Every structure is written in structure tokens, then in C-alpha cells.
Amino acid sequence: MEGSKGKDILVNNSNKEMSEMQTKNQVEDSIIQESLLTCIDLANSDLHQSALLLKKACLDSGFFYVINHGIRKEVMDKTFEQSKKFFALPLEDKMKVLKNEKHRGYTPLYDQIPDPENQVQGDHKEGYYIGSEVPRDDPQWDRPFYGPNTWPNPDVLPGWRETMEEYHQEALRVCKAIAKLLALSLDLDADYFDSPEMLGKPISTLRLLHYEGKSDPSKGIYGTGAHSDYGMITLLATDGVMGLQICKDRNAKIQKWEYVPSIEGAIVVNLGDMMERWSNGLFRSTLHRVILNGQTRYSIPFFVEPNHDCIIECLPTCQSEKNLPKYPAIKCSAYLTQRYEESHLKFSSYKKQT
Ligand code: OGA
Ligand code: NI
Q: For residues 299 and 95, is the Cβ–Cβ distance under 8 A?
């Protein structure tokens, strides 16, 4: 009896060890894997062919690459160089342009915590937001995501503002080209998203990011915690240092994370939650995060959302009697404000948005 009991325990223990190991290996295997994403050639004159390819990518993960996007290498390199120069400034100087109530300016280390359930502290990154500017005499000038930007002192960083403005313009042009393909892939007119209430006057935000350190998911330490983006389209330029991971099935028992490698000359694009809502859940806004390996990493996401007042509700081509709208309508600015407030720390200089 003793013996067999002892044996049972041994068997049980080794089973337990085995299953723990399997789980560990499964997690490790999944982290090593690289994702094979679709590449959309923005110079392809056959828009319908591109839209078809894009549709496949959007149904699968909403993550894809764009090539021949028209942003020249010199422009991209200059933007990264200037970004590095800003983050290399003494903290005291960076704090002079701390993020204001219009979501523009510097966000220090740990400012953002997108996945509080799994993060012990905020993201191991610092950032800088540059938003859309509408002229002072525009009736919407005082809206939370419009208005003037805050800039570092031009004597300290000459040409910095001009570089960022140029990249902002270029990135918006690329996003508008992607929006045309998205419209076609949803059986809408190519210019569907170009109306004034949509991308005619968008909320578009350039964000510079600087990561340092080593992530340890088992300790809740991440470059960027797991999240999906809030808006319509995100264009993500990186310096080539590995780190971005996606999880296509957020509800899986063991979440499978895949690296998204950088490809020279290509830009990673992903859809955000507004696109998922517009398409009635057909197009995916996939969970992603950044895992750091100890190397310094710079990235430049560019987020595009429609006009402040745009109501995001199920598109006409994404609903039928058998497929009723799944999400209630939301107003773009209210939704964005809520998402920003949920995921960022509040500084004393932040005024409560209404
Ligand atoms: C983001 C994001 C990824 C990266 O800012 O929303 O997912 O590689 N960034 O920095
Ligand atoms: Ni993101």
C-alpha cells in the first residue's frame, strides 16, 4: 500500500511537472514564433486586387505591412533622429513640455498602464504626442483633440517641429490611401471615409516612443502592456529592434503571442477598435504589446481617428436582418477621451475633460 501510494504521488508529481513544463514550453514556443503578415503594395494600380488582399488580412488580425507608401527613407530617418534627440534631453527639459489637457506633449516613464491586471507598474517607455492642428478661427478649435501643439524649444532642437510636421502630413496621406482600400474591401465607395465628418477633418496623432530595459511578463513588467488601439488605423514605424507582439485570440486559454518582425522599407499597420465597431466585428482590432530584450528601442505610431463629432455605428454594408449591429453607436471624441483617461496617469497639470 505504502509503496503504491508513494508511486502514485510520484506519478502525480511527474505529471504535474510535465504539464507545468508543457505549459511553460507552449508559452515559450508561442513567444518565439514570428507572424507572417500580408504585405499591401500601395503603388499597385489594381485597387480591387489590393482591397481583396487587405480584406483577408483584416479578417485575420487587422495587422499588415504597407510597402511603396511614398514616405521617403530620408524623411523617416530624420524623424527617428529628431525623436532620439528629444528623448536624450535632460528630464528637466522634457518636463517643460509635459502632456497638457489637449493630449499633446511629453509623457514620462510609466505614464501609461494599458493592462493594469497584468502590469505591476506602467509601461517602460516615454513618449511625445503631436496632434492635429485646426486654425484658431475654426469653430471646433477648442475641442479636446484639436488645437495647437506644444513644441520643445527650437533653440535646443532646431528643425524639430518642421520634421514632425512633415512626418505627420506624410503619415496622414498614407492612412487616407489605406482608408480607401478599407472602404473598397467593405463594399463601400472608395471615398466613403473621406467625408468632412470622417477623415476630411481627422483626429490624427503622431506619437514618438522611446523604450529602455528588459521586460519580464512573469513579473508584470512590459515595454507596452497588452492593449488594442482605440481608433481607426495605426501606422507603426519602428527602428528595427524586435519587440512588438500580437495575440490573435485574446480569449484563448493560453494566449499565443507572435512577434511582428520589422521589414526594411515597410510600415506595420493595424486597425483599432473603431474600425472593429464600424465593421460590426468583421475586421479585427488585435491585442498587441511590446516585450523588451534590453536593447533601446524607438518607435513612431501614428493614430488616425475620424472627426470629433463622428458617430461610429455599424456600416451599412456590415449589417443585415441576420447580422444586426453588435455595438451601440459612440461619438468619436467621447470614446477617445474615455480611453485616454482610462489608460494614462493624471498629472496635476491635466484638467478634467468634459
Ligand atoms: C501603441 C503601440 C507599439 C510599438 O503605441 O499603441 O502599440 O511598437 N506601440 O511601440
Ligand atoms: Ni498599440
A: no
Q: Which three cell numbers stand for residue 14?
A: 511527474
Mean of all residue pLDDT scores within the chain: 89
| CA-based end-to-end distance of the chain | 72
Closest residue by Cα to atom 10, ligand 1, is 299
How many Cβ atoms are within 10 Å of 220's Cβ, its own excluded? 15
51/57 Cα distance (integer angstroms): 10
CA of 80 to the centre of ligand 2 (A): 18
Q: What is the pLDDT of residue 31?
A: 54
pLDDT at 75: 98
Q: Is 244 in the pocket of ligand 1 (CB under 6 A)?
A: yes
Computed from CA positions of residues 341, 346, 350, 352, in that sequence, does the dihedral angle turn out positive or negative? Answer: positive
Q: Which residue type, as a one-letter code, is found at position 183?
A: A
- Give the separation between CA 152 and CA 97, rounded to whole angstroms: 7
Sheet holding 63-67, edge to edge: 39-41, 63-67, 267-271, 233-238, 297-305, 203-211, 125-130, 105-107
Separation of alpha carbons 145 and 192, rounded Å: 23
Task: Name the E strands within 233-279.
Answer: 233-238, 244-247, 258-259, 267-271
Q: How does DSSP assign 135-200, residue by residue?
A: -TTSTTTTSTT-S------TTTSTTHHHHHHHHHHHHHHHHHHHHHHHHHHTTS-TTGGGSTTTTT
Q: pTM of the predicted model, to two decimals? A: 0.89
Q: Is 205 in the pocket of ligand 1 (CB under 6 A)?
A: no
Q: Could you tell me the distance, in angstroms and rounded to a whole number, from the CA of residue 290 to the centre of ligand 1?
A: 7
